[in-house]
Design brief:
This is DNA-directed RNA polymerase beta subunit. With 135 residues, this protein is an alpha+beta fold. Helices cover 35% and strands 24% of the residues. The longest helix has 18 residues.
């Protein structure tokens, strides 16, 4: 190819990009989400859509009684905390066995729970369901 022909081609290409080509910007990349990314987005949306209804607020005496009973009998409990997320929703219950306590702290498997933040305590039966009374 001659040098003159190459210069002419470069000018045609440059003119095309300067005057005719319309870049769609980010739109052209929208179809390139990775499957891992879309799976993570779906999982996040599912978690955000999940609601945890408020359980009856128990007195401190009732909460203490249930936690003591669970500790003494090695029972599994479900604890709903009184704290809410930024959307005003309750968080999932903490489930586990009461491993001990110190002052206002309750040790529930891997969690340390402040007694005054507990809203509701329920016992969990062998099938993983909440029960009103100890087993």
């Amino acid at each position: 190819m001659s040098r003159l022909h190459q210069i002419d081609d470069d000018q045609v290409v440059q003119r095309f990009f300067d005057h005719d080509y319309r870049d769609r910007g980010i739109v052209k990349w929208q179809g390139f989400y990775l499957s891992d990314h879309t799976a993570a987005l779906k999982k996040q949306a599912k978690q955000e859509a999940q609601r945890y209804p408020a359980k009856p607020h128990q007195s401190l005496a009732e909460i203490s009684r249930r936690l003591n009973q669970a500790f003494a009998n090695h029972l599994t409990v479900s604890i709903q905390m009184g704290t809410r997320d930024v959307n005003g929703q309750y968080q999932p219950d903490l489930v586990g066995k009461v491993r001990g306590y110190q002052d206002e702290l309750i040790y529930l498997d891997q969690h340390e729970v402040v007694m005054e933040n507990i809203r509701h305590v329920a016992f969990i039966d062998g099938n993983g369901h909440q029960s009103k009374t100890a087993l």
